[in-house]
Amino acid sequence: MTEERQDKKDHILEIAEKLFADLGYDGASTRHISQAAGVNMAMLNYYFGGKEGLYLSIFQKHVTQQKIKLENLNNEEISSIEKLEKCIDDYADKMMSNCAFQKIIYREMSLSQRSELNKKIISLISLNALEVKRIISEGIKNGSFNQDADADMLVASLFGTKSYIINAAEMSSLLMGYDVTNPSVIETVVKPRLKNHIKKMFRAYLINNNENN
Amino acid sequence: MTEERQDKKDHILEIAEKLFADLGYDGASTRHISQAAGVNMAMLNYYFGGKEGLYLSIFQKHVTQQKIKLENLNNEEISSIEKLEKCIDDYADKMMSNCAFQKIIYREMSLSQRSELNKKIISLISLNALEVKRIISEGIKNGSFNQDADADMLVASLFGTKSYIINAAEMSSLLMGYDVTNPSVIETVVKPRLKNHIKKMFRAYLINNNENN
DNA sequence: AATAATTAATCAATCGATTAATTATTTTTG
DNA sequence: CAAAAATAATTAATCGATTGATTAATTATT
Fold this sequence. Notes:
Two copies of one chain form a homodimer.
Chain A: H1 2-23, H2 30-37, H3 41-48, H4 51-74, H5 80-96, H6 99-109, H7 115-141, H8 151-167, H9 169-176, H10 183-206
Helix pairs in contact in A: 1-2, 1-4, 1-6, 2-3, 3-4, 4-7, 5-7, 5-8, 5-10, 7-8, 8-9
Chain A binds a DNA duplex through residues 1, 5, 26, 29-31, 39-46, 50-51.
Keywords (chains A, B): DNA-binding
DNA-binding region (chains A, B): 29-48
InterPro entries (chains A, B): DNA-bd_HTH_TetR-type_CS, Homeodomain-like_sf, HTH-type_TetR-like_transc_reg, HTH_TetR, NicS_C, Tet_transcr_reg_TetR-rel_C_sf
C-alpha cells in the first residue's frame, strides 16, 4: 500500500535525522541507519536513491513545513515589537522541539563541502533570517525601535543564542546545572527561560530610550 | 634538528586545522591532509601517532594558549562592567582571528561521538564560559547589574552570537551584504561591529534601570 | 501472471594504519 | 677531522576494515 510505504519512509527519515544529528553525516553509516530503522540497507537506495538523497529528503520535509509558517507571520498586522516577540517565540518553539534537525542545519552551514546541498540549506535558513531582519528594520524605520540598532547583529544574537543552547547542549547543561538534552526539561525550564531572556534583552536594547555611549 | 622538526609539526597542525574546519573530522582524510601539508602520509602517524592524535594536538595547542589569557583576566581588579566588556573584546578578537578552530570546536560540541575527546573539548570551553558567568554573577551580586538578569542566558548570547557569525558565515555574508569569510573584512568591519553590538545590548540589558515587564 | 517490495551477497573505492626499505642526520670512534 | 656506526626521518607499497552502492534471487502484493 502507498500509505504503508509512506509511513515506512517517514519512519526511516525520523531515525536517520536523529542519527545524522548525533553522529554527523559521515559518522552515520547507511548500515547503521538501516539497522536502527529495522529495514534492509538496500531499501535506503530503493526509497531515496542513496545516502545523499536520504539526507536531502530530511531537509525537504522541513522546508515544506517552515514555508507555511513564514507566510502566515508575514501577513499579520501588528506592531513591530509584537511581531518580533512572536518571532522569538515561534523560533524558540520550533528549534527547541526539533533539536536534532537544528544540529544538522548548523553543522551543515559551517561546512564548505557538498556545495549543491549547502546552497539549498542556506537558502532555506536565509529565508528565516531575512524575515526577522525585515521585521527589525521595519521597526527601526517606523521609529518604534532604537535608531542606531544593528539589525544584522540582532538576527545573529537571536539565532546564535538559541543554537548555542541546542548545539552546545552539553556545555549548556554544565552551565545551568540541569540536563538540557532532556525534552521535558527543555519544555518546562529552558524554553520559557530562553524566550524571556531574549525578549527582555531585545526590548531593553531596542525600545527603552537610554544613552549607550 | 629539533627546531626544524617542530616547525614541520606546526605546519602540519596549521594545515590540518584548516582542513578539519572546512571538511569536518571525517571529511578530512589523512591522505588529503598530508598532501596539503606536503608530507608523506606516514609522517602523520610518525609525528602524532595517528589521526586522532593529530586532532587532539590541535586542541592542546590552543588550550595552552587560552589558559594563560584566562588567568590574567582573573587577577585584574576593575569594575564588573569593565571586566565584562574586556571579556567581550577578548573573545571577539580570539574567535574572529581563529575562525577555523572555532568551527571545529562548535561542531565537535554538537556531536556525541568520540566521547573521550568530547569531554576534553567541553572541559576547555566550559572554562571560558564559566569564567564569563562568574563575572556576570558577581556584577549582579554586587549590585552593578540588573538584579533579575539571567547570567546563563547571557553567556549563551555572547558565545552564540559570535559563533553564529563565524559558523554560519555564508548566512551572515548573505545577511550583511559583504564577505564574512574575508579576513580583512572581518578585521575592519565585522569585528568592531560585533563588539559594539554586544557591548551596547548587554549594557542596555544589564545596567540601565528600566522596567521590563 | 505481473508488479512491487525485500533480502543476502557482493562490488569497487576509500579509509586509517602499518610495513619494510631507503635516505638523511647525528653520534661515535679511530 | 674523517670514516664508520647508529639513530632519525622519509618514502612507496600494502594491509585489513569499512564505506556506499549494486546485483540477482526471493518473497509479497496486486
